Amino acid sequence: MTGYLDDIRVDPSEIAAQEALYGPLTQSIRSLIDAAIRTEVDSEDIAGATAALTQVASLLRARQIDGSYGAQPSVTGVQRSWASPVIGVRNPIAPPLILEHEPDGRVWARFRLGAGYEGPPSLVHGGVSALILDHVLGEAVHASGHWGMTGTLTLRYRRPTPLNRPLRADARIDRVEGRKVYADGSISDERGITVEASGIFILPTGYAAAR
Ligand SMILES: CCCCCCCCCC(=O)SCCNC(=O)CCNC(=O)[C@H](O)C(C)(C)COP(=O)(O)OP(=O)(O)OC[C@H]1O[C@@H](n2cnc3c(N)ncnc32)[C@H](O)[C@@H]1OP(=O)(O)O
């Protein structure tokens, strides 16, 4: 399996230049998603917007990679999970989370979720919380020098998670047992934890450990 652990050296300045190029495109589309959900303009304007967006899609599709983004070259310490639906520089459905890594291995991020992540009215969709926690726990596993596929992810939704409020995600590893790494984490709002997660990340049979 190839993937985000590949370490193919690319000049960091080129990565920064690409981030400066694609980041604003992604942010524009992110804003567009929110606009599409919340707009109340008249039908002519909707038709105009639809035609303009069809043109934009054609422009972008004039040259593209086959299939999904997959494993893109990275530099040591710079992971290019740019298609990630959680942190992806090139994925407009990513909130995105900007992850912070503590020296003790904890991983955390502050973020907000808007109209595109709604489940119950004005609340975050439970599947979105699961997506975020899967990723953040996985990052903690990776930060510990291991890697693995999510084998089991267990969630406890303690309170509804609000849209459009400051949120925080936290994760850390608990223990390693052979090929299995156990990680815990949570999403919190200003009043405390809303969702707790525990996960078992497993190095698949036949694959080498990261470090
Ligand atoms: C910087 C980058 C950060 C990126 C973060 C990204 C986070 C996102 C992560 C994902 O979304 S991963 C995608 C979702 N997960 C999958 O698609 C996994 C699909 N399942 C598999 O690929 C395999 O079933 C799996 C690798 C999980 C296990 O297959 P193996 O054949 O290697 O396991 P095996 O049957 O040999 O069992 C090894 C051990 O794990 C245990 N085990 C197996 N499957 C398990 C499971 N599902 N849950 C818990 N434990 C499990 C099993 O009992 C055994 O325990 P013991 O060693 O104690 O005997």
Automatic annotation (TrEMBL):
Family: Belongs to the THEM4/THEM5 thioesterase family.
CDD domains: PaaI_thioesterase
PANTHER family per record: ACYL-COENZYME A THIOESTERASE THEM4 (PTHR12418)
One Pfam family this sequence matches: 4HBT
Domain of life: Bacteria
Keywords of the record: Apoptosis, Cell membrane, Cell projection, Cytoplasm, Fatty acid metabolism, Hydrolase, Lipid metabolism, Membrane, Transit peptide
Reactions listed under catalytic activity: octanoyl-CoA + H2O = octanoate + CoA + H(+); (9Z)-octadecenoyl-CoA + H2O = (9Z)-octadecenoate + CoA + H(+); (5Z,8Z,11Z,14Z)-eicosatetraenoyl-CoA + H2O = (5Z,8Z,11Z,14Z)-eicosatetraenoate + CoA + H(+); hexadecanoyl-CoA + H2O = hexadecanoate + CoA + H(+)
GO biological process: fatty acid metabolic process
Molecular function (Gene Ontology), one example: hydrolase activity
Keyword field contains NAD: no
Enzyme class label: hydrolase
Topological type in the membrane: Peripheral membrane protein
Domain Thioesterase: 124-194
InterPro entries for the chain: HotDog_dom_sf, THEM4/THEM5_acyl-CoA_thioest, Thioestr_dom
Subcellular location: Cell projection, Ruffle membrane; Cytoplasm; Membrane
Chief localisation class: membrane
GO cellular component entries: cytoplasm; membrane
Name of protein: Acyl-coenzyme A thioesterase THEM4
EC number: 3.1.2.2
